[in-house]
Amino acid sequence: MREPVFTGACPAIVTPFDATGAINYDRFAQLIDEQIAGGVDAICVLGTTGECATLSLREHISAVNFCVKHVNHRVKVIAGAGSNDTSAAVYLSQHAQDSGADALLHVTPYYNKCSQEGLIRHYEYIADRTELPIILYNVPSRTGVSFTAETYRVLSQNPKINGVKEASGNFSLVAHTRYLCGDDFYIWSGNDDQVVPMMALGAKGVISVVANVAPRLMVDISHLCLDGKFQEAFQLQLQHTELMDALFVEVNPIPVKAALNLMGRDVGGLRLPLCDISPANLEVLRGAMERSGLLDQTC
């Protein structure tokens, strides 16, 4: 029986930029250290929150290399390597493997809107060309395509496909996947506000946006669930519902970068076509952060 890549909480870490728009590696190192100090179980670099869609291939490879080296085996590193071009996904996977990453995150091919058979062929082609475990990433609101439970069942038979980050919000899909795939095809919540119910259905943790600003919160929620303390985890999640909602008041990662900047982390701006949060939504975010104890109310 294969082991899950990680259990617990893993930030989908932001990519900080400097004033020129280049990756700010000094700040990146500080963010990584803060996450590890906050008790996270893994770090996911260059997922959606890391703005992978607007990085060049050279920047992508460099950022993964840097993250792996700076983490230095303190926690697992999951490298985003997804693409709607299968050959590009293989290329990024092989570079992540060369860097020393522990696993890969592969989003469903976007824009192409391939069939379920196309999904199976895409992932099996990648799995045949890397030694790293693969976490699938289902986020149909962004990609326009979703896995079915039957497709998960087929892919679960590949020993290199470890499980899926589920961000569809479809609990019936999660339940049917658990039924069809058994205990060693692992599921992680891709939505911070659904961690407790997902883990009640057998998920192993969360790949989280909220952890960027509150790593200990997401560690506590996920580990309470792992310990079977679902009522305590539920109360903690409810307590911070406003914060979780505010961090998605605009499309991710616009609010989380704004939140980190409010906290003095200086992660810089975003690359077009993403742009700064609106003034009205910034105040919504600021208020939620104050009430969650992340900001002094005089800020």
TrEMBL record:
Official protein name in the record: 4-hydroxy-tetrahydrodipicolinate synthase
Keywords, in A-Z order: Amino-acid biosynthesis, Cytoplasm, Diaminopimelate biosynthesis, Lyase, Lysine biosynthesis, Schiff base
Compartments, as annotated in UniProt: Cytoplasm
Xref: HAMAP family: DapA (MF_00418)
Pfam families in UniProt: DHDPS (PF00701)
GO cellular component: cytosol
Organism listed in the record: Candidatus Intestinimonas pullistercoris
Broad class of where this protein is predominantly found: cytoplasm
Catalysed reaction equations from the record: L-aspartate 4-semialdehyde + pyruvate = (2S,4S)-4-hydroxy-2,3,4,5-tetrahydrodipicolinate + H2O + H(+)
Catalytic residues (positions): Y137, K165
Family, per entry: Belongs to the DapA family.
Residues that, per the record, bind pyruvate: T49, I207
Lineage of producing organism: Bacteria, Bacillati, Bacillota, Clostridia, Eubacteriales
Described purpose of this protein according to its UniProt entry: Catalyzes the condensation of (S)-aspartate-beta-semialdehyde [(S)-ASA] and pyruvate to 4-hydroxy-tetrahydrodipicolinate (HTPA).
GO process annotations (BP): diaminopimelate biosynthetic process; lysine biosynthetic process via diaminopimelate
